[in-house]
């Protein structure tokens, strides 16, 4: 039985490499409907992807490159950008002769992923994903077999960020949850929209990782007239007194002066600032499997 993961997960596995190494392995994968992955070495003038599978030429025709809405033709850029990257597919047919030729379908692999995996997911179900690209409004993620979905920037973390790259890096493996579905797209239950912040713990869970008297690393996320909001964890920020030599995005060392659980507030003293590096505040997941049903922060001031 196939398992469905973000594209690239199968590529280096022994089972995948063995299946790609011989005609017998490809025949077995075709008979069993097994998902395989390989890297295309060429996109020809007809916009078909060409693979070398153990010395056997394999073709993935343009119309088989991806599932599209209402079976619309895939855009040229959607084909040529697959060259040199792991590509998931099923072996559709083999033409025998002096030089056997194999025909592949990524579209049918994606359709299988939708029918047997993603279409069965309910709101709140937790998924594994891989960050594929950024837009100012959010991060797009591969949630299985190259099928992408969006985490909007407001759903990435409770602490405010200016761009998805403040939290994620390209290619990063993450956990996320189904937020909702667009009921029209793809002619099924609709494209999945994702959320991430609910897996990063409540205020209480994050605050329990810190103690009064500690000096810890933070990142400046917001500067107001009455103080500076400093992120200690993706779902936890504290307030330090205003200073004029600080800017949003700075890394910093802060002393924890007080933690007030009843008000969900943390008071900080800013010790020093420095350029923040990617991943300055590591992502800590409190949930990695199962499903979530509700999540809330009753004090709006604690979200900043």
Your description of this structure?
12% of the residues lie in helices and 35% in strands. It is mainly beta. The protein has three domains: 14-115, Nucleic acid-binding proteins (OB fold (Dihydrolipoamide Acetyltransferase, E2P), Beta Barrel), CATH 2.40.50.140; 117-200, Nucleic acid-binding proteins (OB fold (Dihydrolipoamide Acetyltransferase, E2P)); 203-272, OB fold (Dihydrolipoamide Acetyltransferase, E2P), CATH 2.40.50. A six-stranded mixed β-sheet has the order 1-5-6-4-3-2. It has a five-stranded mixed beta barrel with strand order 7-8-9-11-10.
Distance between the termini: 45 Å
As a percent range, the share of helical residues equals: 10-25%
Assembly form of the protein: single chain
* Poorly predicted sequence stretches spanning 5 or more consecutive residues: 297-304
User: What is the CATH class designation of the largest domain?
Assistant: Mainly Beta
Q: Count of DSSP helices?
A: 5
What keywords describe this structure?
OB fold (Dihydrolipoamide Acetyltransferase, E2P); 304 residues; 5 helices; 35% strand; 6-stranded mixed β-sheet; mainly beta; 16 strands
